[in-house]
Specification:
Layout: H1 2-15, E1 23-27, H2 29-35, H3 37-74, H4 80-133, E2 136-141, E3 155-156, H5 158-168
């Protein structure tokens, strides 16, 4: 809703003659995030971390399935006490596997969010500089479904932002 309001305000400002002399620009932050070297590197590192969690999950899942197989094979041969003990061990293993999966998912989301916020903060600082140096009255974020129409005299700073950000990381 907030992005829609910003887009509408920007559209109104574009249509008024009082603002005709002002410089306006937009930027696609999602594109800048995905195509910048730091963004691509973060994406790769998150994918690598996900693969590590997946490998560990498969190992734990194998142990769990082995325990399940043992329980199914031995169920008829075990005493009631031993059977109850195996069932308890099986249930604990199932819970541990589920907890591992949930924790891994949460950690991946947190790490992705943390890295995204760091990059967005740095991109924002560069955009602030662009705004001051370029004497822009307004720079709006282009988001999916956000900007409906953009005139040719409105600058797209996305590629310039990606280039400046990548250069700042050298």
């Amino acid at each position: 809703m907030k992005k829609m309001t910003i887009a509408l305000v920007a559209l109104l400002l574009l249509s008024t003659s009082a603002f005709a002399a002002n410089k306006l620009a937009y930027v696609d932050l999602q594109k800048a995030l995905n195509l910048s070297k730091a963004g691509a590197q973060a994406k790769t590192e998150i994918a690598d971390l996900a693969k590590q969690y997946e490998t560990e999950f498969k190992i734990q899942q194998g142990d769990f399935l082995k325990l399940k197989g043992e329980l199914e094979k031995q169920a008829a041969l075990l005493s009631d006490t031993a059977k109850q003990e195996k069932i308890k061990e099986y249930q604990q293993s199932a819970e541990a596997l589920q907890k591992f999966q949930q924790d891994a998912q949460r950690k991946l989301q947190q790490e992705d969010g943390k890295r995204t916020q760091e990059i967005l903060k740095e991109l924002s600082e560069i955009l602030q500089k662009f705004g001051k140096d370029g004497k822009y009255s307004m720079i709006v974020e282009r988001s999916e479904g956000g900007l409906v129409f953009v005139s040719e005299d409105v600058d797209d700073l996305t590629e310039k932002l990606i280039k400046a950000y990548d250069e700042s990381k050298k």
